[in-house]
Amino acid sequence: MPLIEDSQEHLQHLDQNFTESELQATRDLIADELQELYPNWKNELHPKVPEAYKPKNQSLASASHGHIAKTGKARPEGTGVDLSRYEKVSAPKKGEDGKEPLPKEYLEKLNSAHTSQQYLDGRGANLQLLEQHGKNAWLMHNNQLEDDYKALERDVEATRSAVHRVDGERRAAQEGARGELEGLEEAWRHGLGRAIEAEIAAGEQKDIAIRTKTVGDA
User: Fold this and answer.
1) pTM, whole model, 2 decimals?
2) Which of 113, 157, 171, 193 is the most buried (most CB within 10 A)?
3) DSSP assignment, residue 86?
4) C-alpha angle 105/111/117, rounded to 5°?
5) How confident is the model at residue 1, as a pLDDT?
6) What b-and-e string marks burial along 113-126, b requiring 16 or more CB atoms within 10 Å of the CB?
7) 32 with 4: CB under 8 angstroms?
8) How confident is the model over 90-123, as pLDDT tens digits?
9) d(CA 180, CA 186)
């Protein structure tokens, strides 16, 4: 793309007519100055001209361009917008054995119908705004939805961070109390063993007392 467009349009009643030699001298002066400032100005863009957009997935873009050049259509058949979201959701059908569908299947269909209805309501509102107020109102509504989505993403991220923080505090508290818990468990085991030994000794003394009483009575 040349940096200087070769156009000599001017108003005849304001600008005087230049001779071809004067015009050529002006062009040479401009070319010399450009050559001094930007030696390769004929082949390279000006530094302030933004670079052309380069797609991240070059292979996918090339395949799409090839498909358009071959068929003249932007997308292959069966791709693009999923038209099933605009279709009416039907109730679950009976099984081959004639049994009624399970309540779970009805619940899934009901949730799908509710989602489709919400989407169609929003789509209808957007199209109505587009028809009544033009594309600006529609773009403003989309921008508001994008802001709401970003706010929800921030809330999700904050909640996730809070969960990680609470989990870290829980782990730290468990690690800090591990020694105390192990000591208490060991003391409980020792105390339980002493209690069992005391019960055994008490049982033995009771048996001795019973035998002694039996011998004395005899």
Assistant:
1) 0.30
2) 113
3) G
4) 135
5) 42
6) eeebeeeeeeeeee
7) no
8) 777 776 777 777 778 778 888 888 888 888 888 8
9) 10
